[in-house]
Structure formats: C-alpha cells, structure tokens
Amino acid sequence: MFNLVVCYENGEGTEKDLEKAFYWYQKAAENGNKDAMNNLAIYYENGKGVEKNLEKAFCWYQKAAENGNKVAMNNLAICYENGKGTEKNLEKAFYWYQKAAENGNEAAINNLAVCYENGKGTEKNLERASYWYQKAAENGNEVAMNNLAICYENGKGTDLAKAFYWFQKAAEKDCIRAMFNLAMCYENGKGTEKNLEKSFYWYQQAALNGNEVAMNNLAICYNNGNGTEKNLEKAFYWYQKAAIKDCIKAIFNLAICYENGKGTEKNLEKSFYWYQKAVEKNHIKAIFNLAMCYENGKGIKKNSDKAFYWYQKAAENENIDAQFKLGLYYEEGNFIEKDEVRAFYWYQKAAENENKNAQNKVGFCYQKGIGIEKNEFKAFCWYQKAAEQELSDAQKNLGLCYQNGLGIEKDEAKAIYWYQKAAENGDKEAQFNLSVCYKEGIGIEKDEIKASYWYQRATEQNAQYKLRFFYKIGKGVNKRLEKSIYWFKKAENESLSANKWIENALKYEKVKFISYKELKNAEPLDVGGFGKISKATWTKTNNYVICKQLINTTYIKNDMLDAFIHELKMHLHLNYSDRIIRCFGISLGNLNIFFYIAFL
C-alpha cells in the first residue's frame, strides 16, 4: 500500500496524482504505518492533495512521533515551537527536539543546539549548544556547520581558524548564510588571510542565492572597488535589489545614490522616498537625512517644523550630527523659540560624543557664559579637544586662549603654534593673527616675508580685520595692532600696481610663468648681499636651470615685489650676448615669493 502511494506521489509507472497519494497515505496511516502518518501530516500542513489543515497536521505528527518516527518528532517540535495547529509550547518543543536528536535526526540535532544556545524551552547552555552543533555538523548538516562556526567566532573559547573552517565547509555545501559569513571572514581577515577578491566572490554567491545583506555588501564592493573593479551602476543595481528585499542598510544606501546621482540619474524625490522607507525601519542616519530634506527642500517641499521634529528624533536616538544641529536651532532661534540653556545641553551631548564642532561650541558657551555659567578653564579644555581633532576654528580659539591667558597660563609660543595650525587649515582670522605676530614679533622672531605671506592668504579670503585679534589686549598692544593694520593695508595698496605689471608681462608673453612644482632637485649654489642662487631641474625639458631669489630687499626698496620687478625689467631690456645668462621665466615659491629662472 505504501509503495502505491509513492507511485502516485512521484508519477512512477502512472500519472502523478496527489489526491490519490493522499488517499493511500491516509489508508496506510490508519493501518498504523508511522511513516505514512508523518507524510499524511505533511500533506495536511502544506495542502497537498487535500485542503490545508494545521490541526490535523499536528495530530498526525503527534501520532507518528509517538510511534517512533524521528522525522515526525522533529516536525512535532516545530509545531510546538511556532504554535502551528496547537498552542505554542517551547518546553514541549525542546522535549521533542531532544527525542528526535537522541534518535539521530540531523535537523533535530541542530534545532536542539539552537534551543540550548538561546534558552528556548530549557536553560541557556552554550557548552551543550556547541556539543550538539558539532554532532550535527559532523553528520553533514550545513546549517549546523554555520552555527558551529558562529560559536567558534563569538562564544567561549573563541577560535577564529575553526570558525573559518566550518563557514567554508557550510558554504561549499550551499548554505547561503555561511556564504555570507565566509565573505565577511575574507573581508576582515578573520581566521584567514584578508582577501578582498575571495570576499567579493562569496558575497556574490550569497547575493545570487537571495541573501539581501550580501546584496548590500556586494553593492559596497562595487561602490568602493573592493575585490573587483569599481562600478557605480552595478553598485546601484545591487542596492536596489537588496532594498526591494527590505534590507534596511540597502534602503539607506539607495537613497544616497538617488541623492547624489551615484550609478543612476540624480532624483531627489526618489531619494526622499527611500529615506522615508529607512526611517520607517528606524534607521537613525536616515532620520537625520530626512530632516535635512525637509530643511532644504530636497525632494519635498520645505517644512521647518518637520525638519526640527526629525532632527529631534535623530538626536534623541544619539545621532551626533542631529544633536549639534539642535544646538544651533536653539542658539539661533531658527523656527523655534531661542533657548540658550537647551542649546548648550545639545552641544554638550554632541561634544561628549566627540563631535568637534560641538566641542568648539561648548568651549565658546563656557567662554561667554551662554546657557551655562562662565568658566574660562572649561572653555580652554573644550577648545583643546576640538583643536586636537583638527578643527581650524577651535585651533584659532585655543591660540587666543594662550595669547590672552584665558583659562590657562599665558604662553605666546603656544599661541603661535595653534595660530599656525589653524592658518594652515585655512582659517582666515588665524592667518591674519599670525601675520600680525610675525610683523610685530609677538611670541616669535619678526619675519616680514612671512607676515606678508599670511596677510596675503587672509586677504584672499576677504578677512575682516577688526580689533578682536586678542580677547584681552594688554597695554601697548592696541598701538602695535593699529600700526600693523596700517602697514598691511599700505603694502596691499602699493603691491596692486606691481601685481598688475606681472600680469601684463605674462599676458603679452614678455616672460613665461613656470609652475614651482615643475622644478625638482633644487641645490643651493651661492648667497650674495641681495640674492640667493640655486640650481634645479626643469622637469618639462629635463634641463638644468638657475633660480635667483632676492633677499634683503629692504636695503634696495621698501617692497620685495617692487625690487623683483625692478631687476626683471633690467633683464628684459638687456641685449643678450654669450656673456649674459638669459632670463627665461618666473615662478612663485612656497611663501608666495617670486624668483626668476634662467637656463644654464
């Protein structure tokens, strides 16, 4: 009778007929065949050859299990675990998993290990979990192999080499989760040597088999060129595939693609849509980005109330950028009532989370007493934290602290150090402050060339030169500062005509301009009373050239640029002979100092 069922079920020797297969399974089950009982339950569970009926499925699994069918024992446990056809009961699920496992059912052995690992229906016991995973893995169960690898990766007695071994075994047996985990091992060098090409391969295998997290990671590989050639279009394709399968990270990444036109045409409306989808899944960065969309009208009509609402949501979920943004909102009274106490609160939250802009703001609040009692020492400490993170504004503020003894002992040398750092990072006020220090010899030896250089850098950024150079200006400093500003402005006006002359000389090809970067292997040759001579290789021709830079020009003229032009004009008016080295071009050195170039 049982053999007849198999013929109808598989279409062996007759036409496939699931209704007749069901009929004969039922006959066999009613006659006490335990295997037929289990198969009859499967038909009821899946609606094969009969209407789906989970209660009857449970009933026949139970009969088969009680009659010693180990597959039915595992299936009965699954019914108890998930409440299929009966009330959910984890203790009974554990009992039947254990019975099936003790009878050698491979699936049950793995399921029993899962119960021990997670404390389902029994007390949590990682040693027992590992034991049963090992048993199932050694019996060839690929899911157990993957789970055993996870135990070796994260559990007691971590062994990354063994974790890698079992991930690899499971992946080779087509366990999709193991393919993903193996890719992670190769990507991060866990239990094996780092290999981005192999990582890419296994992400691809897992992605092609439907693993949405692998799809997202495969997209990242294409986006960054990890283990494969960079391809933004393919990155977009896989982000989209993963997003459609509800991978939260991919949903967020897809929104970024649409926002920036990465791998697809820029579409702010679609970007907003996908940010919104990510927000529905509580993706914190997406919440912040959604707020930015509302604030700036990106893909949606501007809405300040909604922007504030979502910034607040993100901030409450520990998004550092949102915390800083809320501080700005409250400090400036943007779209909400101004509240300096709340502004300070959010700045401090972000600052404690290492946001350098917030650290600088907290320093400023302590310095000025904004939303908190004034405390110059704390102001100094927070400026220092932000400055050490390379924030130019904080570096300048730290320089001011050292310059004026604000919260720290006065130290002009340290003030110069931090002004220099800030100036090199592009802070225009620090550039101006540094130029004054070099001009007046404040905390450093006087150097008019460097003073001029930093003043020029500041003017290029349209710096406003107010008497706020020092927070507390000592006696006599006011006059020095006013004198410096007068000198700089005079120098600026006088250099306009000189700069114009050079522009015209280049424009009408009286002289060539040669990039300083094209001059290599410079060697000093000689120094005279008014100039330095060096030899260099001009990389465009591979010829040696002579470079002359004027020095000590204050003895000739008040302005170095004028002195340079004076000598250059003399060269351009000479009737060259074999005895005179011909001036070929001019260049601009590291400190914006002109020098002229001649062939050897």
UniProtKB/TrEMBL annotation:
InterPro entries (UniProt xref): Kinase-like_dom_sf, Mitotic_Regulator, Sel1-like, TPR-like_helical_dom_sf
Superkingdom to which the source organism belongs: Eukaryota
A Pfam cross-reference name: Sel1
Protein name: HCP-like protein
SUPFAM superfamilies, sorted: HCP-like, Protein kinase-like (PK-like)
